[in-house]
Design goal:
Layout: E1 15-19, E2 22-26, H1 28-33, E3 38-41, H2 48-65, H3 70-79, H4 84-95, E4 124-125, E5 153-154, H5 155-168, E6 172-175, E7 187-191, E8 201-205, H6 209-215, E9 241-242, H7 247-251, E10 256-263, E11 272-280, E12 283-284, E13 296-301, E14 305-310, H8 323-326, E15 335-337, H9 340-350, E16 361-369, E17 376-385, H10 396-425, H11 439-458, H12 464-491, H13 496-499, E18 501-507, E19 510-516, H14 518-532
Parallel strand pairs: 9-12
Antiparallel strand pairs: 1-2, 1-3, 4-11, 5-11, 6-7, 8-16, 10-11, 13-14, 13-15, 16-17, 18-19
Helix pairs in contact: 2-4, 2-5, 10-11, 10-12, 10-14, 11-12
């Protein structure tokens, strides 16, 4: 039996939104029907954004309204809010499922396995749902969060982190659940990371929360048997390995079995979560299914032919350093392919359904793990302006934004190369890639606001002349930053760098001699700048050879 105080549809505020009256947490129905009045979600951390869209908002809209084709998608974007008929459909859908959207229920609590227990009554602190919080042996000695007395969370916050665990929980060994037939010695091994853990997630953001929901709603027919988790049989301790029935099943995939343990508090309603039960859940059978929230890397294998696999975000790089993948719209047998949702937006742009000056943004996030996938080693997040014109291969803005990204990275490599040559000139050796300090990384931080300003400017649908002037302005500022970085390196040089050093190497029986000097290092750096900044330094082709008549 459900407790109406914990109904996620109308009573409990649990979805954090941002609107004209600031930040607040609202129930599910209000978040959907008033989505056009909110500027967007205000998640606890960036990785929570795709969780709330995939595990709640988008599946409700997709399941309540039925399959959405390109024309219906365009009508929704043009209207900017749900029509009265759509509002009625969503209301009926939620009214029919009030019990399944209740945190406290004897048979089917939302997103949980009722009565789930560990052997001996063991429980985990609620922080076990939060990958960024140290737990167990990883807790620092000076941390005031004790495993025996964890800090409680409000029920709505605990629900969000429960859904976050379904998407991002690390893999490895999990404590067994009573009644799970696939356990050994009280443990379950071979658990994989959450459904998003091996993906480089790309979430599209629009003007309002309504636009964001529509931009993240896949178009197309619905697969047979495809249902969200709240329309499936209530979960128990047992789990299975199977393929998702479709996108609704994939978006609400239950990678873990979880039970929130509510206890009294002074809050209104009076409840909080301090302890949880967390065990193994369903596993996806076979290769990674088609997921519209990730880009893809395509490689050609002699035995298998063209192979696609999810592209993870490289650690240490900004979102705009991956523009080549984000904007690869045309399908190819090698290289990259952008996400299904960005392809959908590109098709809408080509059809004129998405205005060229629409302020589209892409929120990127991902996690890296240790070799056993049992610990999160890094969380990667960013937000990048995406000029809608760049989604069309026939417009100049596409090549321009990709070139700006490549130029910024080329300038960073040029500074690193200058530093390496100067270090060799005074008798040293540069650090290996990924180790030590690289001045090019510092330059990228200086160029970052310039690139983002250029991308934002390209969202205003500039003319070719305006685009050319903006590109020249970027190159002018980028050159100043690169030369300032080079000057900082040259200022620290000793006098011996002017004379330099000659290095003799013997490779495959052949002897080669290379002289490293300050002058040659500067010459190479200046030549690289002129070759990279093509708007400031137009490349003049060599004169054609004269031929005799």
């Amino acid at each position: 039996m459900s407790d109406p105080r914990w109904c996620l549809v109308d009573v409990l505020g649990w979805l954090p939104v941002e609107g004209a009256d600031g930040l607040r947490e609202v129930p599910l129905r209000e978040a959907l029907l008033e989505a056009h009045t909110f500027t967007g979600l205000a998640p606890d951390m960036p990785t929570m954004l795709p969780v709330l869209l995939r595990q709640a908002l988008v599946p409700v809209v997709l399941d309540a309204l039925g399959p959405i084709d390109a024309a219906a998608w365009a009508d929704m974007m043009d209207a900017g809010q749900f029509t009265s008929d759509q509002r009625n459909q969503i209301n009926r859908y939620l009214d029919d499922r009030l019990d399944r959207f209740n945190v406290v229920d004897d048979k089917a609590p939302f997103g949980q396995a009722a009565g789930l227990e560990h052997p001996g009554g063991k429980v985990h602190p609620v922080s076990a749902l939060m990958p960024h919080v140290a737990t167990g042996n990883n807790t620092p000695l000076w941390d005031d969060r004790l495993v025996s007395d964890p800090v409680p969370l409000p029920v709505g916050t605990a629900v969000r982190w429960m859904l976050h665990a379904q998407c991002w929980d690390p893999g490895g060994i999990k404590t067994a659940a009573v009644g799970d037939p696939k356990t050994a010695k009280g443990k379950t091994t071979g658990n994989r990371v959450g459904a998003l853990g091996d993906l480089g997630v790309v979430t599209l953001l629009g003007r309002t929360l309504f636009d964001t929901i529509v931009l993240n709603t896949p178009q197309g027919e619905r697969a047979a048997g495809d249902r969200p988790q709240w329309d499936r049989q209530p979960m128990g301790p047992a789990w299975q390995t199977r393929a998702p029935a479709g996108l609704l099943d994939l978006f609400t995939w239950q990678e873990r079995r979880i039970r929130l343990i509510l206890e009294p508090s002074d809050a209104d309603p009076p409840g909080q979560v301090r302890w949880v039960v967390l065990s193994a859940g369903d596993r996806i059978d076979g290769a990674q299914p088609e997921d519209p929230h990730t880009c893809w890397t395509i490689r050609t294998d002699k035995a298998k032919g063209s192979v696609r696999y999810p592209r993870k975000h490289p650690p240490g790089l900004t979102g705009w350093q991956g523009l080549d993948a984000l904007l690869t719209i045309d399908r190819d047998t090698t290289g990259y392919e952008t996400s299904g949702l960005l392809m959908q937006a590109a098709a809408a742009t080509l059809a004129g359904d998405l205005p060229p000056d629409y302020p589209l943004r892409a929120a990127t996030c991902g996690m890296t793990h240790d070799q056993y996938k049992a610990k999160v080693t890094d969380v990667l997040t960013d937000e990048v302006p995406i000029p809608v014109g760049a989604l069309r291969s026939d417009l100049a803005v596409r090549s321009s934004v990709i070139l700006v990204s490549e130029q910024a990275q080329a300038l960073a490599r040029a500074v690193d190369h200058l530093a390496a040559n100067l270090l060799r000139a005074v008798g040293g050796e540069p650090p290996s890639p990924g180790k030590g300090q690289h001045p090019g990384t510092k330059l990228l931080h200086a160029l970052d606001p310039l690139v983002r300003r250029f991308l934002t400017g390209c969202q205003r649908n500039p003319t070719d002349d305006e685009l050319d002037q903006a590109h020249k302005a970027f190159e002018r500022l980028a050159e100043q930053a690169a030369r300032a970085a080079a000057e900082e390196l040259l200022h620290r040089l000793p006098a011996t760098a002017f004379i330099g050093r000659t290095v003799t190497k013997k490779v495959r029986g052949k002897t080669s001699t290379t002289t490293y000097q300050q002058a040659s290092a500067e010459r190479i750096f200046n030549a690289t700048l002129r070759k990279t900044l093509t708007h400031l330094y137009p490349q003049t082709p060599p004169p054609a050879e004269e031929t005799e008549a």
